[in-house]
Amino acid sequence: MAYPLITNCPVCSKQLKITKLQCTHCQTTVENEFQLSKFAALGQDQLQFIETFLKCRGNIKEVEKELGISYPTVRGKLDDIITSLGYTTNKKVEIDKKKIVSMLEKGEITAEEAIHLLKEGEL
Length: 123
Fold this sequence. Notes:
This protein has about 120 residues and is mainly α. The chain contains five helices and two strands; from the N terminus they run ββααααα. The chain has helices at about 45-55, 60-65, 70-85, 95-105, 110-120, and strands at about 20, 30-35.
């Protein structure tokens, strides 16, 4: 039985390193120090969100429908994942007011979400 990969030590919480790989077919074992992907440190919820995001081809409206969450929630989850991967998010993003109005007119976001996005640009 295979267990999910853990990335942090259960005793001291420091990052673990992979030192042994084994073939399940012929039992060949390779020992060395192997580097984990940045994605290995993400939580299960974050990985599921990324899978949904990719399945929807990055279309936030489709992600909203698939997960039943609002536009600002999708943005917040994306920002959280970006931060978890070690990148910084620019909270003071240049807000495209015309795009927000267009999204509102098309029914892609609610009036409350539009207000939130416009206020976010005033930080």
